[in-house]
Amino acid sequence: MNSANKTFIIDESDEGMRLDAFLVSQLESESFTRSFIQKLIGQGLVTVDGKKVKSGYKIKSGMSVTVEIPEPETQKLESQDIPLDIIFEDNDIIVINKPKGFVVHPAAGNWKGTLVNALLHHCRDSLSDINGVIRPGIVHRIDKDTSGLLVVAKNNNAHLKLSEQLKNHQIQRIYEAIVDGIIKDDAGKISAPIGRHPINRKKMAVNYKNGKPAVTHFKVIERFKRYTHIQLKLETGRTHQIRVHMASIGHPVSGDIVYGKACKLMNTNGQVLHARYLMLKHPVSGEEMVFEAPLPDYFSELLILLRGLC
C-alpha cells in the first residue's frame, strides 16, 4: 500500500498542544478524525524529531512532526453512472454545478454515491491523480449541503496549474447565501483565523490560538424581516469558512444546523449557501473564464417566501 508523508515544524503558537490535537488541526482539509490520527500514532506512523511518541505528547516550538498517511485501498472506489450538471468541459478541466446533498469525495463509511464516483464513470481514466485514489481530479471542495460550482482537473498538468492559482488567490469564488438576522452594513470584511473547535472536534471555529488566517468579504443584496440575502467572496478557503465567519458575527447561514439553526420558513435540508460564480484562468490556454450557476430551486423558493413576508 502506498503512503504520503507530511512534515510540520511546530510554531510558538502551537506549543503545549497535544500531538493528536495538533495533527487534527493541521490536516483539517483531509477531514481526519482524532481517532484516526490516534490510530496512526499508535501504529508508529507519526514521529516527533524522529521518535515515536504517544497521542497525548505535548509538543514544543521548533519540533519536527512527521506523519505517514496510508493510501486507502483502490478497490473500495467504484465508478457510478450518476447524472452530472456539467457547465463546461474540455480535455483539461470540467466545471460542475454540484447539487445540495451531494458529497464531493468518498471517505471512511461513505464510499459510494459521491461526485468522485460519478466523475470516474463520466471521465474514465481522464482525471488527475495528484490528490490520490479517493480524490482524483479534485482541486477544491464545497460542503455536502452547499450547492454550486467547482472545477475538476482532468490531468496532472491542469491540476498543478489550478492549485497554483488557488494558492495565489487567482481563482475567485463568489457565493450567495441567506443568513439569519438583518445585516445593517451594506458590505463588510470578516478577518478571523479558523481552526478546529477546541471542544467539538467535528466542528470548525474562529480560533485565534491555533487557527489559520481566513478572510471573507460580504455584500448585502436584499434585506427581509429577520433575514438577509448576501453575496460572499472568499479570499482564503478554510473548511466551513463562510459558515463559521457568518456565525461568528451573529448572522449564521439560514438552515445551518451545525453553526446556527434550522430555517423556520421551510425545510432547506441544510445551509442556504450556493457557489454561484467561479472565475479562473484556463490552465493550458491562459484564457480568463467566468462560470455561473443560477440559484437552485430551494434557494429561489425561500426568496419568494421572504419577499411575501415583507
Describe what this molecule looks like in 3D.
With 310 residues, the protein is an alpha+beta fold. It contains 6 helices and 15 strands. The protein has 3 domains: 3-69, RNA-binding S4 domain (Structural Genomics Hypothetical 15.5 Kd Protein In mrcA-pckA Intergenic Region, Chain A); 78-168, Pseudouridine synthase; 174-275 and 302-309, Pseudouridine synthase (2-Layer Sandwich). The N and C termini lie far apart (60 Å).
Gist?
The protein is built from 6 helices and 15 strands. The chain is an alpha+beta fold. The radius of gyration is 20 Å and the shape is globular.
Secondary-structure blueprint of this entry?
Layout: E1 3-9, H1 19-26, H2 34-42, E2 46-48, E3 51-52, E4 64-70, E5 86-89, E6 93-98, H3 115-123, E7 147-153, H4 156-167, E8 172-180, E9 187-191, E10 194-196, E11 204-206, E12 215-223, E13 227-234, H5 241-248, E14 273-281, E15 288-292, H6 297-309
Parallel strand pairs: 7-14
Antiparallel strand pairs: 1-4, 2-3, 2-4, 5-6, 6-7, 8-13, 8-14, 9-12, 10-11, 12-13, 14-15
Helix pairs in contact: 1-2
